[in-house]
Design goal:
The complex is a heterodimer of chains A (270) and B (451). Chain A is mainly beta. Chain A has helices spanning 20-23, 28-32, 225-236, 243-247; strands spanning 2-5, 13-14, 35-38, 41-44, 49-52, 61-65, 71-72, 82-86, 101-104, 120-123, 146-149, 165-168, 184-187, 203-206, 217-222, 250-255, 263-268. Chain B has 19 helices and 19 strands. Classes of the chains: A mainly beta (270), B alpha/beta (451). Chains A and B meet through loops of A and helix 4 and helix 8 of B.
Chain lengths: 270, 451
């Protein structure tokens, strides 16, 4: 099935029905009636999107085109299939996602894959704040799955992350892996200030050196096997990984000593 | 000055979050102005003395004078027709008016947000994540022997805070006032407030989080890297000494201001400070309180919380409240050009929001309620002149420690109160939307009980 945004929304749209789960088995006219929110007005999907074809049963592919930067909640709670977005997308992409794959050719706004538990999200461009984060007031963020950002990401990547993988091709801003419970964050560029603040367990890997909080202590310089496995995996997914990162040594800092001190920040050391 | 004067004892000053309730106001009833404000601080005196009843029109539509009814109708139509309306401000009005604003947001399926989102919003978020150990200012006055101010300048922003609540007053268990207290000030520069401090810590700008984290590590006996001295600009021995004093006090309090909540790290800074207070409860009684700015911003948090479950940054677009600072907070929805109508109560975003936000403010219909013309009211489609809360309007306000107080107005204003205008807008919104409004519902419920 293909969806093309034919009318630019005056105010943000909330369209969690744009997901293979919700569109599976529907005809074009049935899909056009699925409810979305245009601000505070409930309207049909067809009021903003031109819909063509059906979701094929084997692959479950849905393609979406147009400037979707004001369309929120695409792929919400998605459990299977493939959502391909040509262009940039609004907030809460793949929120609470359970399975399947989302691919975005442009940028994504805040809250990509918040509290997801499975599946994979790939953003070719940049992402906003709160990638793979817990919602405000909740302590656990990503419970599983993978988020791959080829560009940069802003604050609080993986806030409260419990399991899974988040990879960022560029840099992140402040508080990467804040309050992390477990899981892995790989940043091919530089971490912002205060990475891993309040982290309990989990690994944050970065290819550029960053100042750690005073509650992190340097342990040793090592070459952990798991980093090689992760980097090979990311290379397979299309991320550009230099050979020296795969074969290199990493400084290991453990923290946060205010919590269990069982988390680690690994920084490439040549 | 005429001879027709009256004296209002125990009047409440609603200028700042201290909400001092020991004012003695002398009022010239003919000239309708306050001639003496005994006990008021420099800010309070300006608040009372400069208040005059001006000859403004009660309402303007597109800059032209209009009747109250016409303006109420126009405001209600704007809000009902909007697909993404927002209501903002509310920190300088009564709780009764704030309640009406929340009801309107609910009826129009719009956003409700207060000036908290641009001052102690991060504190509200930190309360959710970390929790709050708190006390009333009275308890602090009577018991606190360790008082710390972090990222605030009360000498200039809350002039009576030292004298009335936390530094110099004699209390039940603090018989000698300041002599019995240790006063600590943490700031990035030496302010006027620094002179009262026994210990002044000049932290490097933007390094509050690191310092708080280091203090937490010392309290908990956790590993701490010595690089912290260089990072924060505070010697480790000073930190250790401070922590010992904190752990050994009888009752400690940390007041914190926007120097902490609005600098890099925001809600994590506030969270780190609240967590430090919590950690210290392993050794002694310790509390932390935000020093709130506007007279009833604490009331706004309370009212919005008890009505929606969240303190600020709330959307009702789906018919139930959803909270997400950054997504639904007014400065952000304006800067992203998302909302299509805005109602501002007792605030002036047109003069202090970002350039992008103000550009969008100029492009959409705006409704304002304010006692005086503001930059925002001059951009507004509908501008109401309302009576000043506290001075002219009776109602409930909350002090910064969440203690509610009833105002004692000095004299009457010819203008309607915010509550009157908002209530009228609410009723008109309900008529336009074909809804039964709250007062009808209340009548039905009362009738049931009577049967």
């Amino acid at each position: 099935m293909k969806l093309r945004l034919h009318t630019t929304p005056e105010v943000p749209l909330e369209a969690e029905v744009i997901s293979p789960d919700a569109l599976q088995g529907l005809s074009e006219s049935e899909a056009a009636l699925l409810p979305i929110y245009h601000g505070n007005r409930k309207v049909g999907l067809g009021e903003f999107f031109e819909i063509s074809g059906r979701v094929d049963e084997s692959e479950g592919v849905v393609e979406v085109e147009g400037d979707l930067s004001r369309v929120k909640l695409i792929g919400h709670s998605m459990s299977a299939g493939r959502l391909v977005i040509h262009g940039s997308v609004g907030a809460h992409l793949g929120a609470s996602m359970k399975g399947g794959e989302i691919h975005v050719s442009g940028d994504a706004a805040d809250w990509v894959g918040r509290e997801m538990s499975g599946g994979r999200i790939v953003i070719q461009g940049n992402a906003g704040h709160m990638v793979g984060s817990a919602v405000r007031g909740s302590s656990a963020g990503v419970q599983g799955g993978e988020i791959i950002i080829h560009g940069n990401a802003l604050n609080e990547v993986g806030n409260g992350m419990r399991r899974g993988l988040i990879a960022v091709g560029g840099n992140t801003h402040d508080f990467t892996g804040v309050n992390m419970l477990a899981g892995t964050i790989v940043v091919l560029g530089r971490l912002g200030m205060r990475p891993g603040a309040g982290m309990v367990r989990g690994s944050i890997v970065a290819m550029e050196r960053t100042e750690c909080l005073p509650t992190f202590t340097y342990n040793s310089t090592i070459q952990p096997d798991f980093i090689r496995f992760y980097l090979f995996h990311l290379r397979k997914l299309g991320m550009s990984i230099k050979d020296e990162f795969i074969n290199g040594q990493y400084e290991r800092w453990s923290g946060d000593s205010l919590e269990l001190n069982k988390g680690e920040i690994l920084m490439y050391a040549g | 000055m005429s001879n027709n004067t009256s004296v209002v004892k125990n009047a409440v000053c609603t200028f700042c979050g201290c909400v001092c309730d020991d004012m003695e106001l002398t009022v010239d009833l003919d000239e309708k102005r306050i001639t003496k404000a005994k006990n008021a601080c420099v800010l309070g005196r300006a608040w009372f003395y400069e208040h005059k009843i001006e000859n403004y029109p009660v309402a303007l539509i597109d800059g032209k004078e209009a009747s109250l009814e016409e303006a109420v109708d126009e405001a209600a139509r704007i809000l009902v027709n909007a697909k993404f309306p927002a209501i903002y401000g509310l920190s300088d009005t009564t709780c009764e008016a704030q309640k009406e604003a929340v009801a309107i947001a609910d009826y129009i399926n719009g956003n409700i947000d207060t000036t908290t989102s641009v001052c102690h919003g991060p504190t509200g978020m930190a309360f959710q994540g970390v929790g709050e150990s708190t006390a009333s200012l009275g308890e602090i006055k009577n018991r606190a022997d360790f008082v710390m101010y972090w990222g605030g300048n009360p000498a200039e922003a809350h002039p009576r805070h030292f004298q009335r609540y936390a530094v110099s007053p004699k209390g039940l268990h603090i018989p000698n006032g300041k002599e019995d207290r240790t006063i600590v000030m943490v700031d990035v520069r030496t302010t006027q407030s620094a002179s009262v401090a026994d210990i002044f810590l000049k932290v490097k700008p933007g390094r509050d989080f690191e310092l708080l984290w280091a203090l937490r590590a010392l309290v908990k006996g956790a590993a701490l890297d010595s690089s912290v001295e260089e990072t924060t600009g505070i010697p480790l021995d000073t930190m250790k000494d401070l922590v010992e004093r904190m752990k050994s006090c009888q009752f400690g309090v940390i007041f914190f201001g926007m120097g902490l909540t609005m600098t890099r790290g925001r809600h994590f800074n506030a969270g780190a400070l609240l967590a430090l207070a919590t950690d210290l409860n392993d050794y002694t009684h310790f509390v932390a309180l935000p020093t709130r700015g506007h007279g009833n911003v604490t009331g706004a948090d309370n009212v919005v919380s008890w009505q929606t479950g969240y303190p600020f940054g709330i959307s009702f677009n789906r018919g139930y409240p959803r909270f997400n600072p950054g997504e639904f907070t007014t400065a952000d929805v304006l800067a992203r050009g998302e909302i299509d109508a805005l109602c501002v109560i007792a605030s002036d975003p047109g003069s202090n929001f970002s350039k992008k936000a103000i550009e969008h403010l100029r492009a959409i219909p705006v409704i304002t309620l304010d006692p005086k013309p503001t930059v925002t009211s001059q951009l507004a489609r509908v501008a109401f002149t309302t009576a000043t809360y506290g001075i002219n309007v009776r109602g409930t306000v909350y002090r910064m420690d969440n203690v509610p107080l009833t105002t004692r107005p000095a004299f009457e204003s010819p203008f309607p109160s915010d509550q009157d205008v908002l209530s009228a807008i609410k009723e008109r919104v309900c008529e336009l939307r074909g809804l039964k409004h709250a007062s009808n519902r209340m009548t039905r419920q009362t009738a049931k009980v009577a049967v």
